[in-house]
C-alpha cells in the first residue's frame, strides 16, 4: 500500500508499508489499512499510525503497545518527550528521517535520496 506524504521541503513522497510484516509482528490489520508515520508536535518523536483503525503504535519493538486516536479523547503522554498536551505534527517527517528512524522496518522498500536533508 502506497501512502503519499508531504514533508517540509514541499515535495511529495510515497512510502510503501509492508502490511504483512506489520501483521506478523502483531499489528492490527483490517484490509483497507492507511498507514503513515506521524511525529509528535513537540519533539518530532515518530509513531506508526493506521488511520483506518485510528490505531497509534508507539513502540517499534512491541506492536502490542498501542493506543487509539479518537477525536475528543486525550492522548497519553508522548513516549519520547513526556508531553501531556501533544498532537500529531502538521509537518510530517521527511523520507530520510523515516527511513533512518525507529519505524524503518515497516517500509516495504527504501529509496535513498538526500533531497530532504537540511
Low-confidence stretches: 1-12
Mean pLDDT comes to: 84
Name the helix and strand elements from N-terminus to C-terminus, one letter apiece. EEHEEEEH
Oligomer: single chain
Q: Beta-strand level of the residues, as a percent range?
A: 15-25%
Main sheet attributes: strand count, strand direction, barrel closure = 4 strands, antiparallel
Cross-sheet strand order for the largest sheet: 3-4-5-6
The counted number of beta strands is: 6
- Separate helix tally: 2
Overall structural class, as computed from helix and strand content, comes to mainly beta
State the shape.
globular
Radius of gyration, in angstroms, nearest whole number: 14 Å
Domain unit count: 1
First-residue to last-residue Cα separation: 28 Å
Helix residue percentage: under 10%
Topology, element by element:
Elements: E1 2-6, E2 12-16, H1 19-24, E3 35-39, E4 46-50, E5 55-57, E6 66-68, H2 95-99
Antiparallel strand pairs: 1-2, 3-4, 4-5, 5-6
Summarize the structure in words.
- With 118 residues, the chain is mostly beta strands.
- The strands form two sheets. Strands 3-4-5-6 form a four-stranded antiparallel beta sheet, with no helix packed on it.
- It has one domain (2-97).
- The model is unreliable at 1-12 (pLDDT under 50).
- 9% of the residues lie in helices and 22% in strands.
- Strand 1 (2-6) and strand 2 form a beta hairpin.
List keywords for this structure.
118 residues, 6 strands, 9% helix, four-stranded antiparallel beta sheet, disordered N terminus, two-stranded antiparallel ribbon, mainly beta, 2 helices, globular
Amino acid at each position: 500500500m502506497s501512502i503519499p506524504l508531504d514533508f517540509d521541503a514541499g515535495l511529495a513522497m510515497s512510502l510503501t508499508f509492508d502490511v504483512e510484516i506489520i501483521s506478523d509482528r502483531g499489528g492490527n490489520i483490517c484490509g483497507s489499512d492507511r498507514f503513515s508515520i506521524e511525529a509528535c508536535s513537540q519533539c518530532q518523536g515518530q509513531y506508526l499510525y493506521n488511520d483506518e483503525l485510528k490505531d497509534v503504535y508507539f513502540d517499534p519493538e512491541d506492536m502490542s503497545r498501542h493506543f487509539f486516536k479518537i477525536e475528543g479523547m486525550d492522548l497519553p503522554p508522548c513516549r519520547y518527550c513526556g508531553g501531556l498536551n501533544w498532537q500529531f505534527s502538521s509537518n510530517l517527517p521527511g523520507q530520510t528521517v523515516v527511513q533512518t528512524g525507529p519505524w524503518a522496518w515497516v517500509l516495504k522498500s527504501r529509496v535513498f535520496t538526500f533531497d530532504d536533508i537540511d
